[in-house]
Amino acid sequence: MTRTPPMLPPGTRPLSKLPDFDPRQVPVAGHDAHLPAVPAPLLAPSAIRQRFAAPPHWEPELWAEPAFAGRQPSLASVLVPVVMRERPAVLLTERTMGLTTHSGQIAFPGGKQDDTDADATETALREAEEEIGLDRHLTEVIGAMPTYTTVTRFVVTPVVALVDPGYRLRINAGEVADAFEVPLDFLMNPAHHRRHVIEVDGVRREWFSMPYQDERAERFIWGATAAMLRNFYRFLSA
After folding, report:
1. What is the pTM of this model?
2. Domain 30-55+62-237 has CATH 3.40.50.2300
């Protein structure tokens, strides 16, 4: 049966371009607490660097989302910035509401590949500089994950980099509303991975969410960002 998408509560900022759709209101279909968390030693920067240097045999769990009709695929990249703190963390952004795609959502810094970009890594580094002013000289790119295709038909390459904790950001307010860190051990623990399922207009849509509460707000990580983090979990736990 086709369900009516959950409506946005009054006074709540939307997290989707679909009119009034609020993914936070979609019931949780399940948790993955039965899966093991990635052990802390494997989350150390040196261990992640070694994992990319000698990758295990593994397969991504998630490859693509159901497409909206009429959009041609475009190449894109995101930077997955792992900040090298004593407790490593992932640097994420909150996109502004004025953007044409994925507005208001939690995302990695990144965007569409330009014709002048030499490769996916250059796209990710350039976009991170443009969006949040992350100095590429403070990043060490250690590898890339398999592509993930979004509902808006961006074929995204996640480029993983280790980031010096002394970084300073210059946020582009036209694209980014906020930037913040989430502990890597939180994201790599499937007990925090929630499954959602809904059918809209005859299309079954499934996604993960990983809500994280910091000192300022709840960071509702979902959709493509959560999917790429889930694949990162599969890679590190393989």
Report:
1. 0.89
2. no
Q: Are 179 and 132 in contact (CB under 8 A)?
A: yes
Rounded Cα gap, residues 55 and 60, in angstroms:
13
Tokens coding 24: 């936070």
Query: Residue 149: in which H helix or E strand, if any?
Result: strand 148-149
Provide φ and ψ at 223, rounded to 5°: 65, -135
CB 196 within 8 A of CB 28: yes
The predicted structure's pLDDT at residue 77: 98
Calpha distance 73→90 (Å, rounded): 27
- Residues linked to residue 30 through DSSP beta bridges, in sequence order: 195
Under 8 Å between Cβ of 210 and 229: yes
56 in Cβ contact with 48 (< 8 Å): no
Neighbour count for residue 64 (Cβ, 10 Å)? 14
- pLDDT for position 7: 40
| Radius of gyration in angstroms for the set of CA atoms belonging to the chain, rounded to a whole number | 17
129 contacts: CB under 8 Å, gap ≥ 6: 135, 136
How far is the C-alpha of 169 from the C-alpha of 175, rounded, in Å?
Answer: 14
pLDDT of residue 98: 61
Give the count of beta carbons closer than 10 Å to the beta carbon of residue 100. 7
Cα–Cα distance, 175 to 167 (Å, whole number): 19
- Domain extent listing, the chain: 30-55+62-237
* CA-wise closest residue to 106 among 2, 210, 236: 210
Residues of the chain with pLDDT under 70: 1-20, 68-70, 98-103
